[in-house]
Amino acid sequence: MAYDDNNVFALILAGKIPTNKLYEDEYAIAFKDLHPKAPVHVLVIPKGKYMNFSDFTSNAKPEEVAGFFKAVGKVAEQLGVVEDGYRLIMNTGNNGGQEVPHLHVHIVAGKKLPV
Hints:
Elements: H1 8-13, E1 21-24, E2 28-32, E3 40-46, H2 53-59, H3 62-79, E4 86-89, E5 105-109
Antiparallel strand pairs: 1-2, 2-3, 3-5, 4-5
C-alpha cells in the first residue's frame, strides 16, 4: 500500500489545510485533536510520509525516529502534563483503530483516564 498524499495530515503538512500548531520542529508538528477525548488531547505527527508505526520504524532514518519521539516528549512538557501524567496512544491499521493513514501520536491528559 502506498502513502496517500491526500490524507488530512499530509494536507496539513503541505499547508493546504490550516491548523493551529502548538509545536513544530524539523521532525514533527503538534496540534489539538478536533474531537478531544479529554481536557488535553493533542496530536503529534512526523513530517515524513509514514503511514503507521510499522512503516515508520522500518523506513525512517534513525535521526527521524529519535527526533519524532523527542518532539512528543517536548510537547508533553509544553502542555504541562508531565507531573500529573498523560497517556500516549498510537493506533496502527484498521484493527488498531487508525483513522488517518499517517503516523500520529495522541497525547491525552487532564483527567484520570480509565485503564
